[in-house]
Write a structure and sequence with these properties.
37% of the residues lie in helices and 9% in strands. It is mainly alpha-helical.
Length: 197
């Protein structure tokens, strides 16, 4: 039993360990592998059977824990024109939103294997997305309480296996350093200081 849907590297459902490396099966060419190919399910997630794991429950719980939605005090007006933002900010948000929630980054993370509550690259990337967003009105203290613990950004031991295995090549290093600077300084770090290009 294994999962696949898109066969184009955009749904993340076929993530598995191939010769010891978390990756998407649909983007892996057998010609690039050794003669002996070892397939295993992703570690960390609940095993459903054979190569199939349940990443959905973990991602859903993580989204609820991080309150992965825009926090604002503004009343919603369905007739109002949408809020505009500059292109650089919109591109930084877009880069973080490209995560396909395949779980490869979490499966590769040494900290996540030891501490099951660790947010992992996917969780930190998600919270970074909302830190970039000028529409989110959470204050410094709220961000600090959310991610400045040993299961948050400071739990990362810096091996960056997540960055090595991300099939979408998300700018995880830049996002993590942005969050760390923001948590360390206690003052707002300008999003424009980041170069995600």
């Amino acid at each position: 039993m294994y999962d696949f849907v898109c066969r184009a590297g955009i749904c993340g459902s076929c993530a598995m360990m191939i010769n010891g490396r978390p990756t998407l099966a649909c983007r892996t060419l057998t010609a690039d592998l050794t003669d002996t190919i070892e397939l295993l399910p992703l570690p960390f997630f609940k095993l459903l059977g054979d190569l199939s794991v349940d990443t959905g429950v973990w991602f859903h719980d993580m989204a609820k824990r991080l309150e992965s939605w825009i926090h604002t005090t503004k009343e919603f007006d369905p007739t109002a024109e949408e809020e505009r933002m500059d292109n650089d900010t919109a591109n930084k948000i877009y880069e973080s939103e490209r995560c396909i929630e395949c779980g490869c980054c979490v499966a590769a993370c040494a900290t996540a294997q030891v501490y099951p509550d660790f947010l992992g690259a996917a969780g930190l990337n998600r919270i970074g997305r909302f830190m970039f967003d000028p529409r989110d009105t959470r204050g410094e203290q709220e961000w600090f309480e959310l991610v400045s613990t040993d299961i948050g950004v400071f739990g990362c031991i810096g091996m960056m296996a997540c960055d090595d295995v991300c099939p979408k090549d998300l700018p995880l290093l830049e996002v993590f350093s942005y969050i760390r600077r923001k948590m360390n300084s206690g003052v707002k770090v300008a999003v424009n200081e980041m170069d995600l290009a």
